[in-house]
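Subject: sequence -> structure tokens, single chain

Hey, anyone have a minute? Need the predicted structure for the following. Not urgent.
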Amino acid sequence: MGLLTDLAPDALTPRRWLQANRQGWGIENGSHQRLDVSLNDDRCRVRSANGLWILGMLRRLVISLFMEWRGRQPKPHHKHLTDFQPELGEDNRAHALRFVEFCTSDPARYQLLFQRTVPGFEPTPESFAPAIRALASTRELLASHGITDERHVDLSTALITGLVDQQVSNDPGGDRWIGLVDESVAMLLAHAQSDRPAWKPPSRTTRSKGL
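Reply:
Had a minute. Here:
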């Protein structure tokens, strides 16, 4: 990076020149570094002027939210944008943990509600209501992260109930598989967000000239 000035050479002392140089790098290492490294701004392949403007505005909004969040942390200078992003998944983790604890706290209830171990048994609408609310809440939380594919909703329920099954079957009263909830939710979010279809530029249509 170079520095340009309209001042005469003798107007800038070596100290002032170094200060100006450091200030320039301060901009590069602050907003620009966060945009390029943490938010992949340099890798963006959007070519629409409006799209670039909107994405740039949203990325800078994320940085502003991060700076506000960091200012409320006990050691703000030790926090980075990559620390802020997992916080956005905290609600998913808490929701999954509540569901796991609900199921493992009463294995008989869990088996009747979700495994239907008694042939012909159907829970009453009132008894089954918590399961319906849990599924609806899962969809809403995933959608808040831009995850709307039903495959990922199914994957989420299979992953969490799988942990419940393992906990109830192999470590009743313990926390061996409950302790994997955080890692499982992080893995699910990372997979679902990376599994989105890549953006493709719109194909150009050729118009035939009239006779």
